[in-house]
């Protein structure tokens, strides 16, 4: 399959809530997705043959001390391990037009940590006490100019 990344539009919301199992029961997460779409801070991954049905999404903003930051990357369970997450993050890097970009994930999140390591992210600190017993790891990547 060929995956394409495009900016999210309002009609994608219902798909992203399905893609992201957490969003089903979490109002806060749904609000976060809706806000990111409305602020043009959300991108979706679709099969090139079905551009109306996203299978993953990623967000990009400047919420981290004014730096470019990827707060969310989610791929549907059914489409994981096909390179979509990597493609979304690489696209967000490109969209940021920044010299450096940050993201974070829980220590327990091996898939995301491996993905970031593969894309050349380096460790940039730890925040304790967000999720009990599961520190938030900050990562940073220097981007080509
Ligand atoms: C993290 C996540 C976005 C990865 O998406 P994905 O499309 O499955 O990732 P990719 O297929 O692009 O994988 C890229 C690399 O990440 C690593 N990786 C991905 N899933 C992995 C897993 N389950 N175990 C170990 N490494 C994994 C591998 O190094 C992989 O490269 P490889 O397949 O060539 O070995 C996905 O697992 C997800 O949506 N998780 C739930 C939401 C989440 O935790 N998001 C991150 C924090 S916001």
Q: In words, what does this structure look like?
A:
There is one protein chain. With 145 residues, the chain is an alpha+beta fold. The chain has a single domain, classed as Gcn5-related N-acetyltransferase (GNAT) (Aminopeptidase, 3-Layer(aba) Sandwich). It contains 5 helices and 9 strands. The strands form 2 sheets. The protein has a 5-stranded mixed β-sheet, covered by helices on one side. The protein is globular. The N and C termini lie far apart (31 Å). The model has no long low-confidence stretch (mean pLDDT 96). It comes from Pseudomonas azerbaijanoccidentalis. InterPro entries: GNAT_dom. This is GNAT family N-acetyltransferase. Pfam families: Acetyltransf_1.
Which secondary structure elements does this structure contain, and how are they paired or packed?
Layout: E1 3-7, H1 13-19, H2 21-25, H3 27-38, E2 42-47, E3 56-59, E4 61-64, E5 67-70, E6 73-75, H4 84-96, E7 100-106, H5 110-118, E8 122-127, E9 136-142
Parallel strand pairs: 5-7
Antiparallel strand pairs: 1-2, 2-3, 3-6, 4-5, 7-9, 8-9
Coenzyme A (COA) is lined by residues 72-75, 80-86, 105, 109-112, 114-115, 118.
